Amino acid sequence: MATTTAPQQAAPASPGPMKRIILIALIALIAAGAAGAGVWFYMSKRAPVAASAQAAPALPAVPLFFPLESMTVNLQADDGQQHFLRIGLTLKLGDAVAQQVLADHMPEVRSRILLALSNKHPEELAPLEGKRALAEELKTLISEPADKGSAPIRVQDVLFTEFVVQ
């Protein structure tokens, strides 16, 4: 009997321990780089939002409006006819202290307004610029201190709620 020997196949060479270490280190390096890039991308998008939220100014305080009762005044007339002005005012104030001072001195304030209005002519009040000038004049008049030595009343604006010249 003859024996034949079949050539034995060589077992596949397993990678050496050095190649495995390099492969694992390479995969870990790529994973760490991807994680770092993701964190950087996410944080760079979020940072301006957080910074703008901290830098955003606080909302302005809600203005305080103080309505005055409507007033009717005789106007100066050169044509011999009687002219009237019916006016409603609302004052825009900066704080509650000004509101309290106005409430305490309302008869004086109304008297100042009525005296100033009764000295006007209808022709002065007809154009838009005349109304704006009147609002500024009334603002200055109302802001005057009620008592000597006291601080002026802080009126931010005079708003017309009613304005009829007849």
Overview of the structural elements:
By secondary structure, the protein is of the alpha+beta class. The protein has a domain at 64-165: Tetrahydropterin Synthase, Chain A (2-Layer Sandwich), CATH 3.30.479. Helix content is 49%, strand content 19%. The protein has helices at 17-55, 96-104, 106-118, 122-125, 128-143, and strands spanning 64-67, 71-75, 83-93, 155-165. Strands 1, 2, 3 and 4 form a four-stranded antiparallel sheet that branches. InterPro entries: FliL.
Number of strands: 4
Global geometry? rod-shaped
Order of secondary-structure elements: HEEEHHHHE
* Parts with pLDDT < 50 across at least 5 consecutive residues: none
Count of helical regions: 5
Specify Rg, calculated over alpha carbons: 42 Å
End-to-end Cα distance, whole Å, is: 142 Å
Sheet bearing the most strands, described?
A: 4 strands, antiparallel
Which labels suit this protein?
Tetrahydropterin Synthase, Chain A; 4-stranded antiparallel beta sheet; alpha+beta; 166 residues; 5 helices
Question: How is the topology of this model organized?
Answer:
Layout: H1 17-55, E1 64-67, E2 71-75, E3 83-93, H2 96-104, H3 106-118, H4 122-125, H5 128-143, E4 155-165
Antiparallel strand pairs: 1-3, 2-3, 3-4
Task: Summarize the structure in short.
It is built from five helices and four strands, in the order αβββααααβ. Strand 2 and strand 3 form a beta hairpin. The longest helix is centred in the first third of the chain and has 39 residues.
